[in-house]
Amino acid sequence: MKHLARFTPLLPALVLLLASPSALAFDLSEAWQAARSYNSDYAGSRADLSAGSEQAVQGRAQLLPQVALTGSYSHTNPTQPAGLAGYDSSGYGIQLSQPLFDVSKYSAYQKGKIASQQAATSFDAAEQQLMVEIARAYFDVLLAEDTLTATRASKKAYQTQLQQAKTAFDLGTATIIDTHEAQAGFDAASAKEIVALNQQEISQNNLRRLTGLDARAIQPLKEQLPPPPAGDLQSWLELATHNSLALRAAEQALQYASQTVTEKRGNQLPVVALSAGYNDNRSNQNGALPVTRGSSIGVSVNLPLFAGGGINSQIREALAKEEAARDKLESTRRQLREDVRKSWLGVTNGAALVRAQQQLLISAKSKVDSTKLGKEVGIRTNLDVLQAEQSYYDAITSLATAKYDYLTACLQLEQVAGTLNESRLQTVNAAIRH
User: Given a cut of 60, is residue 20 above it in pLDDT?
Assistant: First the structure.
């Protein structure tokens, strides 16, 4: 009890350490939740969304009444004719104006709405991109750990063979060739271990940069992987046509460009506005009325006749940009179909590759066992055993790579189709051991 009492003051700090997010094991879904509050790029996208939503408000404001309050005060000292006394003047007024017909302002209102929609689309795209980046970083850490584990196991096998080869050489039952072969394999495995350690550090730092979490607490995969997303290629192409964020952004860019054309053409049309006001003026000038008050209401029409050719030039510029946006939309549509095909093949072929690598791993393990048995009966050498074991460890790394590539491809297919969300992420997260 006395010894325990000495550590009592350290208990609160220990509890805080264990309860800190960096000390707790986490899965892919928890990494995503951490990134939402930690990642600065995501925070910037959220701020851009808030800023973009104001574009609709600003565009609508141009169509609403504009009210202004004015006030003035002046002191006048007459010089001619001589002898006149100075006097003060003051007044205030309130003015209201309301557009009745203004194509440019109406187009600006429409552009404001489109700009807000563009901001929402950009945010959704940034959110989906971050999901894929988190998943890729997460699986990169797991792959680095699996590679390091396989490399160290391979190194250990070479070390064992090296010791056996040296002992056999000392006893005269083996040649120096076996020792040199084992030494070369051990040195190669040592070099691979350094590379694997370096890659592990890089991948852990990248995940920490995105999420703020300690990548050493990452959760590994289960043996069973989720099935590929349902649907054939044609259904995914149709889904992407309706949901792709890249295609939606291109369509919104074309709508914005079309409204700009309307706005510039509107500069050639008359502008009609309603105006109303009230004024109250006071003066102590001799002979002048001390107080004048009055209200006014009227309609003004402004028709531009000639602007030096500037308006026509702006229209031609807007038309050219509209045509460029239309071409960009068609290019995006074609690229989308290619991206969907590529992602769909990545998923289907990825699933097939995982099954093939699993079978290869079984075969590689059988080969190791058979080669060791052959060495015992004298029909295989140490070099044969080392090569079989190296193939086995390579198969472990290849299977891990295939699994992580397949899971990432599933998310990329959802991203290309514009359907990636937290629910889809949970489907992949179900493959992680908890």
Answer: no
The torsion of the CA quartet 164, 166, 168, 171, rounded to 10 degrees, works out to -140
> CB–CB of 425/29 below 8 Å?
yes
Q: Where are the beta strands (DSSP E) in 284-357?
A: 291-302
CA distances from 426 to 29, 114, 131, 318 (A): 7, 32, 11, 45
Residue 1 in this model has a pLDDT that exceeds 60: no
3-state helix, strand, coil in the chain (%, to 5): 70, 15, 15
At 326-341, the pLDDT tens digits run 999 999 999 999 999 9
Whole-angstrom distance, CA of residue 395 vs CA of residue 397:
5
Residue 219's nearest CA partner among 25, 394, 365 is 25
pLDDT tens by residue, 340-389 = 999 999 999 999 999 999 999 999 999 989 988 887 787 887 778 888 88
65 upstream amide cis, omega within 30 of 0: no
The token duo for 88 is 């003060």
Strand 271-283 and strand 87-101: pairing? Answer: antiparallel
At 91, is the secondary structure helix, strand, or coil?
Answer: strand
Which pTM value belongs to this model? 0.83
CATH number of 28-64+102-268+310-432: 1.20.1600.10
